[in-house]
UniProtKB/TrEMBL annotation:
Upper taxonomic lineage: Bacteria, Bacillati, Bacillota, Bacilli, Lactobacillales
Pfam families attached to this UniProt entry: CMD (PF02627)
SUPFAM superfamilies xrefs: AhpD-like
Molecular-function GO term, any one: peroxiredoxin activity
Highest taxon of source: Bacteria
Record's protein name: Gamma-carboxymuconolactone decarboxylase subunit-like protein
Biological source species: Paucilactobacillus suebicus DSM 5007 = KCTC 3549
Database matches in InterPro entries: 4CMD/NDH-1_regulator, AhpD-like, CMD-like
Domain Carboxymuconolactone decarboxylase-like per the UniProt entry, residue ranges: 17-101
Amino acid sequence: MAKKQTAGRDNLGEFAPKFAELNDDVLFGEVWSREDKMSAHDRSLITVSSLLTQGVPQLEAHMKIAKQNGVTKDEMVELITHLSFYAGWPKAWSAFNLAKEIYAD
């Protein structure tokens, strides 16, 4: 079962309360919790793939979530290697540096 998300309210609750609500309750509360439709593991693979191709800062947080959701180091390495040809070599290098830190233990 997906962990209750509070990052929206914690970071933007006072500044952008509706966005925080949508983040915590809809995206993570409703969409991510539909594990009868798709596992958190698979959602993490898809999310990390999307964020890697965009080159956005949220990649690090979702790579950590992916690890918590059971995505192995070998799976992450294969994901980044595969996407390097589609998303770009520099993005792959950046993603590998994050993955090395996250999967260091």
